[in-house]
Amino acid sequence: MRSTRYVPILLLIAVIALGVAPAAAAGAGVPYEDPNLPVSERVADLLSRMTLEEKVGQMTQTERYQVFDDATPITTWHLGALLSGGGSTPTQNTPEAWADMVDRFQRAALATRLHIPLLYGIDSVHGDGNMYGATVFPHNIGLGATRDPALVSEVEHVTASETRASGPQWTFAPCICAARDDRWGRTYESFGEDPGLVIQMETAIDGFQGPRGHLGDADRVLATAKHYAGDGDTRYGTASGDYKIDQGIAITNRQDFWDTSLRQYLSAVQDHRVGSVMPSYSSVDWTEDGIGNPIKMHANQELISGVLKGEMDFGGFVISDWEGIHQIPGDWATQVRTGVNAGIDMMMEPNAYQSFETTLLDEVNAGRVSMSRIDDAVSRILTKKFQLGLFEHPFTDRSALAEIGSAEHRAVARRAVAESQVLLKNDKHVLPLRRDGDVYVAGSNANNIGNQAGGWTLTWQGGSTNQIPGTTILDGIRQAVSSRGTVTYSADASAPIRPSDVGVVVVGETPYSEGFGDVGGPRWAYDPGDNGVPRPVKDMQFSSDDKAAVDKVCAAASRCVVVIVSGRPLILDPVQLAKIDGLVEAWLPGSEGEGVADTLFGASPYVGKLPVTWPRTLAQEPINVGDASYDPLYPFGFGLRIP
Questions:
Q1: CA distance 439 to 372
Q2: Both 131 and 217 in a single domain?
Q3: Distance CA 460, CA 226 (A)
Q4: Residue 27: pLDDT band with limits 50, 70, 90
Q5: Catalytic amino acids?
Q6: 95 with 233, same domain?
Q7: What's the rounded Cα separation, in Å, for the pair 412 and 51?
Q8: 441 and 532: one domain?
Q9: Which residues contact 627 (CB under 8 A, 6 or more apart)?
Q10: Whole-prediction pTM value?
């Protein structure tokens, strides 16, 4: 007999067609749909009504491209979540198109028997960089240089508002690793090498999620602390394939691992209430029992269930990285079983989501995965969906769409850029520059917004040819110089240089992400703008063209300033450094190049401090503050001020 406590199917179809939440239409028809009940009671009631297939579906996340043309698998497979990887966007990459897409997927989720809404996750790691028109902030290494936790919270609040206004309610950020070797291709995703600094910057989580009880607000998203744990502490040369250090092995003892890689999660969980945690691709090899038996973090029950969920009392859910369990030793059934039993609650399966569901069902039915483990995972996931308010408001609140990329938001980004600038050298008091002077601008990164935005911008790897709304450093310089001054621009310094000119040479890296940024690692060539041509080698060195531009400008101009745009320190030639009057590390500033010019011309003071140690040579890596032998070019925390 059909219970009258359920929403009649015709009404359900009607409200889905109208884009109205079925729960709202049903009122308090069943306890889990009653917003006045405690979340724990709603979760327990909903869980009691779910079949095993529905529970396994909630533990499954797949990629947008699997359901973009046909959303019915969301309904058929009871999918709990979707994601967009880097470069995975709607056909028209606009805020409106994002909202339309997410809402279309949400309708498919609400067509399930219990109409449980979807979570949609994206990598808003420096603003919602995947979406054209978003405000693109400095990457974390630049935010770490600011030493300004309040600013970091404000940055991520803007990021959260732009993300949720366009549909997604979940970000795979922040990375709270401590990057211990700058040769790592993800160094720029870290706030710095010192876990204490990382802990200070965990206000990022508050910016994403808001105060306690405000996760459901229209300008907040669920945060993800990643990558648990030790992704920044892997040893160079231990990675698989062409990677050199990314996804490698942390060879360490438990005390050192706590000191460098684990303790920042305690504060993220207990002080900032982070809602989800993502395990690392990397492994840990404990020296206490001898080297040679590394454990993949996605399989590490001791650290996920024992430490994170047990000792730290983490109440959110654990989401795997992209096909993370595929790196666990064993066959597919072993990988699924091991990952779930280790404590991973939701699997990010962009390609094998159907096979994951059927395999997990088999493992449960065979008794190799317990129902209590399934219920624990699903309860954690549902709790966050209720706290996000998705059962009452599953569709995108579009009231703030017009604020995406607004002048107000870009002003926050510009201030973050200015505060992130680190002044390393200022001989002859070359800085600040005069607004009425003659400025000669050169270098590969002076007028390239793709390079200054870095990886995770429009595509996974970013790109030198990528164009986003914003200002380049050259734009900022031109705006700063008054009508009584002049600006000459020549990327390769081939234009004549006058003796009265002050040179500004903007050099540095081209974009990369993950292992493709490892020093000595593979070279990406697969974005449309690459045209099949491998990108420059990642070696933490100036390119030959940039070296030549620095030499030419510094030899001919009255004084010269070199600005480095990079995701990590670069090795400086001592002979060339001696010829440079001013040296600034700008990191990866994002869309607001004016912030770099603000400090060059004195509109904003230099307040940034190095979040990582600057080595003299590449052979010094890894080098970190506190090392027994510590002889850097510039120490951790260094940053000049101008009186």
A1: 68
A2: yes
A3: 17
A4: very low
A5: 321, 514
A6: yes
A7: 47
A8: yes
A9: none
A10: 0.95
479 in the same domain as 373: no
Cβ neighbour number for residue 406 with a 10 Å cutoff: 15
Domain CATH code at residue 442: 3.40.50.1700
Q: What is the pLDDT of residue 3?
A: 35
- Give the range of the structural domain holding residue 242, as residue numbers without chain letter: 38-295+369-402
Task: Tell me which residue has tokens 């019915």.
Answer: 72
| Distance in angstroms between the alpha carbons of the first and the last residue of the chain | 81
Residue 328 placed within a domain: no
For the beta carbon of residue 641, count every other beta carbon within 10 angstroms.
Answer: 9
Q: Is 6 helix (H, G, I), strand (E, B) or coil?
A: coil
Q: Are residues 206 and 261 in the same domain?
A: yes
Residue with tokens 């969906």: 385
> What is the spatial distance between Cα 364 and Cα 376, in angstroms, rounded to a whole number?
14
Q: Tell me how many helices (H) and strands (E) the chain has.
A: 22, 17
Phi-psi region of 543 (alpha: psi -120 to 50; beta: other; left: phi over 0): beta
Output the CA–CA distances (angstroms, integers) from residue 445 to 171, 214, 298, 451, 557, in the order listed.
Answer: 29, 40, 38, 6, 19
> Exposed/middle/buried for 237, CB within 10 Å: 0-12, 13-18, 19+?
exposed
Assigned domain for 456 exists? yes
CA distance 158 to 141: 18
How many residues would you count in the chain? 643
Q: Which two tokens stand for residue 225?
A: 């602390």
- Cα–Cα distances (Å) from 377 to 75, 320, 370, in that order, read 20, 12, 11
Return the SS3 of 347: strand
- Please name the residue that has the structure tokens 């999660």: 265
Please, what sign has the CA dihedral across residues 592, 594, 600, 603? negative
In whole angstroms, what is the distance from residue 178 CA to residue 11 CA? 52
What does R_g of the chain's alpha carbons equal in angstroms? Answer: 25
The pLDDT tens digits of the residues spanning 494-526 come to 999 999 999 999 999 999 999 999 999 999 999
CB-based burial of residue 313 (10 Å sphere; 0-12 exposed, 13-18 middle, 19+ buried)? exposed
User: Which CATH number covers residue 283?
Assistant: 3.20.20.300
Distance of alpha carbon 503 from alpha carbon 499, whole angstroms: 10
**pLDDT tens-digit map of 425-483:** 999 999 999 999 999 999 999 999 999 999 999 999 999 999 999 999 999 999 999 99
Evaluate whether residue 185 is within a structural domain: yes
- Give the C-alpha separation, 349 to 71, whole Å: 16
Whether 278 is in a domain gets the answer yes
User: Which residues on neighbouring strands pair with residue 559, listed in sequence order?
Assistant: 502
Give me the helices (H) in 63-122, please.
72-76, 95-110
Task: Report yes or no: 190 and 202 within 8 Å, Cβ to Cβ.
Answer: no
Q: Do 474 and 392 belong together in one domain?
A: no
Give yes or no: residues 384 and 237 share one domain.
yes
> How many domains does the chain divide into?
2
Residue 534, preceding bond cis, omega within 30 degrees? no
As a three-state string, the secondary structure of 112-155 is CCCCCCCEEEECCCCCCCCCCCCCCCCCHHHHHHHCCHHHHHHH
Residues 83 and 231 in one domain: yes
SS3 492: coil
